[in-house]
Structure to design on (357 residues):
């Protein structure tokens, strides 16, 4: 079985996106692809009550794979199961379930994509660390490392080597800000090369990839849509709060394109200022409905208005918690990330290592 294990140093690093992009590249080469997320620590219930992993179902379906996507995560750790494990009530080695699932998923395919834990710390409590699972399945490990500062990017990569040892195939540096690209190129890459740690690519930070879609915002905020038209895939790259004078708001709004504006439903002046600039969605708080004139103008400009019950601070906090944690569910996001991978990652090393070139 030819398999690749993809993991990350921390949650929301882009691991699932990398799995999806590599899967698309494998398929583009005419390879038959399988996918498995051996261990899930994020249990999710389907509408009919079945236990699954939402990311695993998303990748499985996005790649158009055969089989039941609900079985793409053979071990799903719930809060109850963890407590039973810690109390010694459940001492079964769940690695057996993973190996059986991998054997089943690898039938009739050329390469099996394995999505590892959301961090290199994950899995030790239940005896299923990233290293143990990758070794058991004979899969070299690729680690996604997000840029979080000059020293931390180096420490995170060195930690990847420390935890995975010879199982480490290489790393992909993700979300590298433009202003730090020279530092990475001139200092980080040569240093890691001197340590014999392969860096397969550096992906730049792209605000569009961390954007929230209007559809996601509507669901997240439990909002009522006041306008006739709403494109759920439209992306809001920046969150802007309208809590100042109209003149100050207009000046601020002009500086930021493709934004979501959050303001009180009674702030007609701010709402008009938002509609005069590049606004993707207008979010009105406090369950206060705007004037019919605002709704009419928003409809004419194809800017949806979402009405939420919470106040402005509560709404902003909920949105900030979700920023950067969304999937590539929108076609524009997916195509943007696929292009980034093609242009910035040396996938040939992966193909050669797996004997697929």
């Amino acid at each position: 079985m030819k398999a690749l294990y993809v993991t990350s140093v921390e949650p929301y690093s882009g691991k699932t996106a990398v799995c999806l992009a590599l899967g698309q590249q494998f398929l583009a080469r005419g390879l038959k692809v399988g996918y498995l997320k051996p261990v899930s620590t994020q249990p999710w219930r389907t509408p009919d009550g079945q236990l699954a992993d939402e990311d695993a179902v998303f990748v499985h379906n996005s790649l158009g794979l055969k089989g039941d996507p609900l079985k793409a995560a053979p071990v799903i750790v719930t809060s109850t199961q963890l407590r039973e494990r810690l109390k010694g009530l459940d001492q079964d080695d769940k690695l057996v379930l993973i190996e059986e699932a991998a054997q089943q998923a690898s039938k009739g395919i050329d390469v099996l994509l394995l999505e590892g834990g959301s961090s290199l710390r994950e899995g030790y409590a239940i005896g299923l660390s990233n290293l143990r699972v990758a070794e058991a399945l004979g899969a070299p490990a690729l680690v996604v490392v997000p840029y979080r500062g000059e020293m931390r990017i180096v420490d995170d990569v060195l930690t990847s080597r420390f935890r995975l040892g010879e199982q480490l195939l290489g790393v992909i540096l993700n979300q590298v800000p433009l202003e730090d690209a020279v530092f990475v190129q001139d200092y980080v890459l040569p240093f890691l090369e001197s340590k014999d740690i392969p860096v397969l690519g550096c992906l730049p930070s792209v605000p569009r990839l961390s954007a929230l879609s209007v559809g996601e915002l509507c669901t997240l905020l439990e909002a009522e849509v006041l306008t006739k038209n709403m494109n759920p895939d439209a992306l809001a790259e920046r969150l802007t709060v309208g809590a100042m004078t109209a003149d100050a708001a207009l000046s601020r709004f002009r500086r930021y394109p493709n934004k979501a504006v959050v303001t009180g439903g009674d702030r007609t002046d701010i709402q008009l200022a938002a509609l005069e600039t590049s606004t993707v969605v207008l979010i009105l708080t406090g369950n206060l409905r705007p004037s019919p004139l605002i709704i009419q103008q928003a409809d004419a400009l194809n800017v949806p208005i979402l009405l939420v019950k919470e106040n402005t601070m509560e709404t902003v906090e909920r949105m900030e918690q979700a920023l950067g944690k969304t999937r590539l569910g929108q076609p524009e996001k997916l195509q943007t990330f696929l292009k980034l991978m093609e242009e910035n990652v040396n996938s040939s090393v992966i193909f050669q290592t797996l004997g697929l070139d």
In short: Residues 150-164 form the longest helix (15 residues). The chain has two domains: 3-208+328-353, 212-322. The two ends are 16 Å apart (CA to CA).
